[in-house]
Amino acid sequence: MDRHHPLNASFHGSMRSRDSSSTVGSDAREKIKDCFRKFIAFMFTQVGVGALVVCYAILGAAGFMHIEKDSPDVQLHEVRQLRQNCAEALWNITITDNLFNETAWVIKVDEVLKVFQNNITAAIHTGYNGRSAEDIWSFPAALMYSLSVFTMIGYGNIVPKTVWGKIVTIAYACFGIPIYVLYFCNMGKVLAQSFKWLYITAHECSRRDDTLFEDGEMQPVKRKITVPSTACLWVISFYIVTGTIMFGAWEKWNYLDSTYFCVISLCKIGFGDFVPGANIADSAGGSHLKLVINFIYVLLGMGLVAMCYNLMCEDVRVKVRELREDLKNCLDDITLKITVCMNDTKYYHQKNSRNVNGTATISVRSRTMLPVRLRRVVGHEGRSNDALFQPAARAPPLSQHTLVFFGGDVQDYPELMQAHRDNRNYIKWNLENTVRMLGHNFPTKHILAVRPSRYVGGSRIEYKSFSCYDNFVPSNNAGVPEHTPTHSALHHLERLLQGVSSRIKSFSTSELVEAFSPVSLPEDIDIEDLHNSAIHAAAAAEATKSNGTKAQAGSSQSADNVLAEHKPESDPLWWRENFALDETQLTLVGFSKGCVVLNQLIYEFHYTKTLTPGDAHMMRFMERIVDMYWLDGGHAGGKNTWITSRSLLETLTRLNVNVFIHVSPYQVQDEARPWIGREEKAFTSLLKKLGAKVNRYFHEQPGMTHSLHMHFEVLANFKKMQDSIPASMPDTSDEDA
């Protein structure tokens, strides 16, 4: 067949026209569907739902008014007939009976009136109120009826009488209640968010904010704020008072009845004994305006109830969470006290025990040079911290010197670390071993380790993984600091040193000699050796009780594998005369989380230098700080691990403090926390540019994975690395490596 036949061309042309018309029709249908989808999406927004509820109520009022207004008034005619029959019966009694017999007349009239009364009561129970259908179903009354149906208030003052009215009410309720629930939820969220924003704004404007330094400028400290339940109650109370005044004026109700109506309406009880609408309908002028205000009051009141419900639920959740945390902290504190008291009782019992020959056994603490635990040393304004103290092994060449240590998350008393699910793996790094190691590395310095004020991070004691130095720097429940220059960390440190000095002075000479017996440690002492020596000595002391002097000799021999006891060449309590830690030179060491205390002190250095330069006492105390060590600092927050503000570091430089920075790949090369490396680099480089006396050391151990073991190796080897690298050599860094 010829391809160019006219019939063939005509056929293809008709097909193209059909395709074209089909495409046009398809585009039109898609546009209609798209518009319909947009309309549905808009109707589910807050504005759309509110408009839908209003329109639905107006549409229902118009429909019910149209259906019920022209319904026959059967009850009205029946009541009129009853009234007429009663009047005729009374007239018949009057004209037929002897009027001079009053008693008989009263009896017959009373019977007729009782029948009339019972009939009227029955008519009222079936819905009669003395008004015609046209009077009952006015637009205000119909609007309130529609509102009572889909809000489920159900006043019951007017009800549909016709068959169609009842059918429409069923359908109206089935579709209206879901719309109202959607309105209730959406409007509650919108009003809750709006009111919360207003409350937070007013709260921040009316209170005196704590401030912090961020890049050299003062910034407010951000804390989570929730709307208290009392504020919600005040809002609802004010709304009810407004409705009381409004309905009392318009409906001629007293204030009690008006308050009663507002409460039962907002609570969706709806007894129906008080319903607005009668006097509003009777007023000739302004009835529609009052109707709109009345309708908006009830509808908006439902939204306020939803708002208060959301806000109060949030407040209750926060309060319950805080109460749960407080109870857990209280239980943990009680557990800690019991554990420590049992441990201390066991220690003192071992220290004072005697063998069968009457000679004193070797004290665990004196034998292994364990530091003294000082419970709840009081500092600034009632704050308190536990502390561990060990005096200098030998006299310094010049004046006395104190090293103050702030540990990391994992470090705690050995018995508590042993009870912890995870921390038991690092028990050799407990605070007691750390103090002994620092005492070996710094033999001419008193060693003071400050225990964090609390440990958080879980519901049970074995999950308490985050240390919080709240007495030095405000922190959240993960120990993340919220630095502020007015937290008085410097004052607390000074009072803490004074408190430790007072506690030590209160000991008798015999107690001090027994507690701080001088020992000699090998030059290559290791933290593992310290830990094992404490375990061996404790085991030896237990064996002494059962095996007598023979076991005592064995325990001494096992302990001497690491610690070699020697007799002091001079008075072991040489440091007790004029003992005052707050008047000695200070070296501050922060390890891991403990570096947040050193950062906080930099904030307060700047605050004291710039804003309170007249505080001569605190200025003298700051001058006693000669060395500051940052040992692999880090925490769970997303910033402020290292200080990067130029103005703060300028103040630190002017104090002429020796800054030592020791870092490892575990912190500064952590890909999950890249800000730590960036901030540490900025901290170090800025100090160098400002001319500070800064020394940086990078602890890289080839072949070792980035783990907590690498992290703790910084604590073990920082002094050894410093001693092996001359001061004139350039600082080792990860960039150089």
Automatic annotation (TrEMBL):
GO CC list: membrane; mitochondrion
Membrane topology note: Multi-pass membrane protein
Keywords: Ion channel, Ion transport, Membrane, Transmembrane, Transmembrane helix, Transport
Residue intervals of the Potassium channel domain: 134-192, 235-312
Disordered: annotated span: 1-25
GO molecular function, one term: potassium channel activity
The family this protein is said to belong to: Belongs to the two pore domain potassium channel (TC 1.A.1.8) family.
Protein name from the UniProt record: SFRICE_000722
Source organism of the structure: Spodoptera frugiperda (Fall armyworm)
